[in-house]
Each structure stands twice: as C-alpha cells, then as structure tokens.
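Notes from hallway chat w/ T.B., transcribed later so I don't forget. T.B. wanted the structure written out for a chain they're using in a teaching module, and asked if we could keep both sequence and structure tokens in one place. Agreed to drop them here.
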Amino acid sequence: MAIIPGHRARVTNAGTPLARLAEMLASRNATLTPVVDALVRYQEVAKLAAGGDRSAGTQVGSMRVESSLVRGAVIVVLDDIVSSGGSMAAARELLARGGAARVACMAIARTPRVAR
C-alpha cells in the first residue's frame, strides 16, 4: 500500500498521518504491505486551497518513485482527500513508470464541488 505524499518536500513519508493509517490498515490485513516511501515528494507544491497548481503534470514533476519497492507489484494508493484528481493521476503514472504490475487508487474523502 503506497500513499500520496503531502505537499511538503520530505526525505521520507514515515510518521505522517497517512503513512500511519496505511501501516495500521496493513497490520489488520495480511495481504497488504505498507510501502509508504514508494512515492516521495522531493519538491514542495502549493496547496490547491491556497491557489496552487495541482495538475498531474505538476505532481509528476515534484515526486519520485522508488522502483525497487514497486517493480512487479500490485499497488493500492491511498490518499486522504481528492480535489482535482491530479495527485492520483500522477501517482498512477509514476508507479506505472516504476514498473508496478497494477495500480488501484482510493481516497478517504473528496472535496465537494461547488456550483458557481
């Protein structure tokens, strides 16, 4: 189980709330293995709520994939909240490039769309 890294640049995702959730879920299901550093954000991106560009292209350019953790694996990607879908699209692309056999994505919540 991989996670979408937060907007801040980090060396590791270990200890983040989403990483802890992935580890807890894996501890309750022997078919899951947490690989919380499969995707790591190496360049900070602005939050969408602050007017940041959260397009898939921006996301791909700010994260790296650890191919040795994903090559040939079936990966479930966990995100806390989906707004535009850019992070999920970037995760799928990067994990596929890294050699994942299959990628499935899920989120805890979705930002509601407001009619204007």
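Follow-up for T.B.: The beta strands are 2-3, 39-41, 63-65, 74-82, 102-110. Might be a good example for the class.
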